[in-house]
Design a protein that fits this description.
Residues 18-149 form the MATH domain. By secondary structure, this protein is α+β, with helices and mostly antiparallel strands. Helices cover 38% and strands 29% of the residues.
């Protein structure tokens, strides 16, 4: 089985409790040679009252998720993460067949085997959905999958509320450990004669890069010495990176999201990286989209990159005269031009 990322996901404006998306795929059939091969969309987010709450990804098996249904399309939406106070009440997945008939299936609950998946292995028989895919005379290797997701704010219970307050209390306690010399065993040396004290066990568990660095200084730790580690990012960014590692919180995220994304990428802190992407996507506009696309490309931030490319394809008329647009790296500009071309083909 192979997993291939393909296509673009676009958002259809709707009310705050209903999120609508469409996933456009081109030349999808040539990507899938075997049964169980899976195509996935870029990750995307849903919002409730303008706040990002659900990270999702669409998955499509042109030759079935399992051999049992290899004559069918299998289609799912995977819920990667969501806020605790939001419930998904209904998911609708749809596509048009070659007769321009909309085929939809409504799901009131996730699959029995995986609570993060909504959809069906036997979504529709492949010949009913895309006869032209199999036709040599009139091939059609493009497909759009539509998603509608309904959500609601959960009322919760007293037990849930107490648990939430308990987690908040733990985070507050961990935040008090941040840059507190008591019981610390690491000193992060920052350019400009500044330093931050931290705890080896937390950093090594939260970042594989820190784990590798600290393993190289194991003798110092065994001798109960403070381990010094040079850090080549600014003091404020380093402090907020550590705050996230201790508490999963960030202060003033919007102000430092771009620098923090670079740091999260460098130290392989994937959850922080995703949070930075959400902040940068939320504030995307024609003045910053080129810089954020280049940032996403350099940091491997695929969700931000796909969103920025889609944004630029839609607003190309406003961007094409900008010097930064013409100065984009060749590989990045090719992806932008391809997205723009696909909008009109």
């Amino acid at each position: 089985m192979s997993l291939i990322s393909i296509g673009d996901v676009s958002v259809t404006p709707c009310c705050t409790c209903v999120a609508k998306y469409q996933w456009d795929m081109h030349n999808f059939w040539i990507c899938c040679k075997d049964s169980e091969d899976m195509l996935v969309s870029p990750e995307f987010l849903a919002a409730h009252d303008s706040s990002p709450i659900i990270w999702s990804q669409l998955a499509f098996y042109p030759k079935g998720k399992t051999n049992k249904y290899n004559a069918c399309f299998s289609i799912f939406v995977k819920i990667i993460s969501r806020c605790a106070d939001v419930d998904i009440t209904e998911v609708t997945l749809s596509l048009f067949n070659d007769e321009h008939e909309l085929i939809s299936r409504v799901f009131k609950q996730p699959t029995h085997t995986d609570a993060s998946l909504w959809g069906a292995e036997k979504f529709i028989h492949r010949s009913v959905a895309k006869e032209k895919v199999m036709s040599k005379k009139e091939p059609n290797d493009n497909l759009t999958i539509y998603l509608t997701m309904k959500t609601k704010k959960s009322q919760g219970s007293m037990g849930v509320l107490r648990f939430g307050k308990h987690i908040e209390s733990i985070n507050n306690d961990y935040e008090k450990l941040l840059n507190n010399e008591a019981f610390t065993d690491i000193k992060l040396e920052i350019v400009g004669d500044k330093s931050i004290r931290a705890h080896r066990i937390i950093l090594s568990r939260r970042s594989p890069v820190f784990s590798f660095i600290l393993m190289g200084r194991l003798n110092q730790a065994q001798e109960h010495k403070i381990v010094s580690v040079p850090i080549y990012i600014s003091y404020n960014v380093c402090l907020e990176m550590l705050r996230f590692m201790y508490t999963e919180r960030v202060n003033d995220m919007d102000a430092i999201a771009d620098e923090l994304l670079i740091a999260a990428s460098e130290y392989c802190i994937e959850d922080l990286k995703r949070l930075c992407e959400m902040s940068l996507i939320k504030n995307l506009n024609v003045d910053n989209v080129i810089q954020r696309l280049e940032l996403a490309h350099s940091c491997g931030a695929e969700t931000l990159k796909a969103t920025a490319i889609g944004f630029m394809a839609v607003h190309s008329g406003l961007l094409i005269q900008k010097r930064e647009y013409r100065a984009m790296a060749t590989d990045v500009s090719y992806e932008v031009y391809t997205a723009h071309y696909n909008r009109f083909t």
